[in-house]
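Supplementary Data S3. Sequence and C-alpha cells for construct A.
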Amino acid sequence: MNYKERKKGQILLITLLVLMVLAVVIVGVVIVTSRDTSQVVANQKYEQLLNVAEVELQRVIDKYGDTTIPLSDLSNDSDLDNYVTSCEVINSSSEIGYECKINDDNALGLDLDTSIRVIEDKNIEGLELYKDETMSFVLDGYDQSLDITWDQDIAMEIAITYFEDLDSDGIWDTNEPLDETRDIFDAFGVYDSLGGAANFNFVSLNGGRGTRFNISNIVDLQSVNYQTTSISLTARTRNNLSGPTLLNMIPSDPASFPFQIRSFKTSVYDPNDSETPVAEIESFISIETQLDSIFNYTIITDGNITL
C-alpha cells in the first residue's frame, strides 16, 4: 500500500467519524427539542386545566365557604344543579361530605373529567401556626384528652373557652357566664417565669414538642358545671421562627370530637388525552371562627408590670 492510498483511507475514516459525531448531535438536538416541545404543550394544557379547576372550586366555595350552611348533596342544590351532575356520599368516623362530578362549561371546548370533593374533617395535621399567632378549634362539649404536637422549640399557650351550664341542658343561654381557662406548656424555657400552680396537668410528648392533657382534669374546671366551646393555641418564642410551626391534634375519643375543617378539592383531566396532566386544587376553611390575635392576647414583657 503506497502513501497516497494510506492518506485516502485516513481521510475516509476521519470523514466517517465526523459524520457519526454530527449524527449524534443532530439526534440529540431532535430529542431535546421534541421533549421541550412536549413539556411546553403539557404546561400549556396544565394551565388551562388549572383555570377550569379554579373556576369550579370558587363556584362551590362561594356558597359552602360559609360554614354555617350545612353540607348537602350538591347535585340537589338549586344554585349548583346546572353544574353538578351526581354526588357520592362520604361518611366515615373522621370525615363526612360528598364527592361530585361536574359538568363544567369550560371555554376549551374539551370533554373534561372534573370532580370536586367537599368534606368536613376531624383531622388536624400539619396546620401552619406562626409566632404569636392564635388558631382556634371547635370543642362543642368535648372534654376528654387531647394530644397536641408541633415541630419547633416553642412554648404553646393553650386556652379553653367554656360556659357555665347552670341548667345542665348543654346549651348556652344568655344568662350563663362565658369564661376561659388557660395554661402554658413550655419545655424550652421561653418564659422566665410561668407563675401560679399547674392548671392543665400537662404530660410532655415528642421531646417537649408536644403535650397531652385531659380537659376534665383541668383544675379551674373542677368546681364548675361547664360545657366547652372552643380551644385556642398560640405559639410563643423569643426569636423569629424560620417558618411556621406545623401543628397536629389527636383526640382520645374521636367519636365525640367535633369536625374541625371544611375542605374543598377539585380535580380535572382530559380523558381523551393519554398524556393529559391532572390539575388539582385544594383549599380549606376552619369551622371555628378565627379571631385576630389582638383580641385574644397575653402581655409579654421582660420585667414586671405595675398597675
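Construct B, processed identically:
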Amino acid sequence: MVRLLRAERVAEALDEARASVTRDEADVESHELLIDILMNLGMGWDAQEAYRVRVQARPDDPMAWYLFGRAAVTAKEATEAYTRAVELDPKLGRAWMGLASVDRALGQAERAKTRYEKALALDPTLSEAWAGLGALHIAAGRHDLAVQVCERAIAAIPSDPEAYLAIASLRPERALDVLQQGAKASPEEPRVWEALAAEQIKAGQLKDAERALETALRLNPASSQAAFDLAVVHEIQAGHLDVAGQAALARARLLGRDSPIAARVELDALVERYPACHLVFLARGHTRSEQGDLTGAETDLRRAIALAPNSPDVQGALGMLLLSQGQAREGMVLLDSAHAQRPHDASLGVAAGMAHVAVEGPKAGLQVLATVSAMHPTDARPVMAMVSVLTQQGNAEGAFQVLANAIARFADPSLLLAYAAAAKDIGKDAEALAALDRLYRMTGEERYARMADALRAELRR
C-alpha cells in the first residue's frame, strides 16, 4: 500500500527521507516513506532497483526483503519478496501486511483480510494494515465492521488520523465528536482540522470553524479547500451567506463536475438569494466558463471581484480568463496578486509567468517560471511552460537544458519523454535513446520500447 502525499510536501519529504535513511540505515519508516515518494513521482523502477541492490547485499535480512517487496513494481516480485521475508521471520507483521496489500490489489479480499489480521496480531501499530482492513470492509458494504476496525485502530494508535476520518465519513451523526477527538489526538494533521471545520459550519459553530480552518491552513497552506471554507465562514459572518446557502453552494460545486446544467440552475438561484456573496458569483463564473460562455463568466467574475477585490480565488480565476482572452496586461496584475497571496499554488505561478511572457516578453516570463519551478521542484507544469516558451523562441538547446536540469531533480515520465524529444531535436541521439529506455523500465509501457527500437534502427542506418 503506497501512501499518497500532498504535492507541495513531496520535495521536502523526499529530502527528509533520504537524509533519515542516510543517518540511520535501520530506520524502516523512513525507507517506507522514501519508497512511497518515489512511487508517487513515477520513479517506481528506480526504487525497485535500489532496493534490489540492497537486498542482494543482505539476503538473510527479512526487513530488507520486506522493503524490496514494497518497492517492487509487479505483484509477482512483491509477493515473492514478502514471502521470503515471512520465511525468514514469520513474526514480521510488516511482511504479512505486504502480502495482504498484494491480495487486496488482486481482488483476493478474504485472504487479504486474514493476512491483515495476522499482521495486526503481530504488530498492532501498523496503521496501514488497519486502513487496508477497514477499506476491505467498506468495499464489501460492511460499514459496521469497518467502524469496529477503526475503533480498534484508535485504541491501538490514538494519534493515527485515518481512523477518525473514516468514522466521521461512515457515521455522520458521530462526526463532530469523533473529529474533535481526532484533532486533540493528531493535532498536526490538517485533514482532521478541515473535516472538523466542515462539521462545525453545519452546526453553526462559526468561530470554532474559523479557528479550525486557520489551523489547517497553517499546517497546509496549499489547501484550496480549507481556504475556500474559510472564505465561506467569513461570508456567513458578514451576513452575505447563511448555512443553508453554504450547503446549496457545496452541492452546486459538486454537481458542476458531472451535471453542469443542474449546477447552473442551482447557482442561478443562489445568485438571486445571495447577491452580496462573491462566492456564488465565483462558482457561477467557473461553471459558465466550463460551458463555453466566456462573456457570462467574465461578467460573473467581475461582479465577484467588485464584492471581494482582494480574494486570491477571484483574482486567479479572472486573471486566467483574461489571459486566455488576450487581455494579458490586466490578467498579469491579477495573477501576480493572487500568486503573492498563494505562493504554494503552482498553477497560479505558471499562469502569472505566461502573463509576463505575453506582456513583458520571454525573458521576464522565464524568470517568473524559473522561480515557480524552484519553489515546486517536483511539479512538471512550470518546467513544461518554460520549455514551451523556449521552443516558440526557437531555442531548442535552452529547452533541452531546462529539461535536463529538471530530470536531474526528479525523473517525471512526462519530463523524460519531453527530454527525449528535445535531445533528438538537437542531435543528442544517445541521450534520447537512454531516456526512452529509462521510460520503458520505469513504466513498463511497450510504446516506449517501440520508440527506443525505432531510434536504434534509425541510428544504425
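Residues 243-258 form the longest helix (16 residues). Residues 76 and 177 are 43 Å apart (CA to CA).
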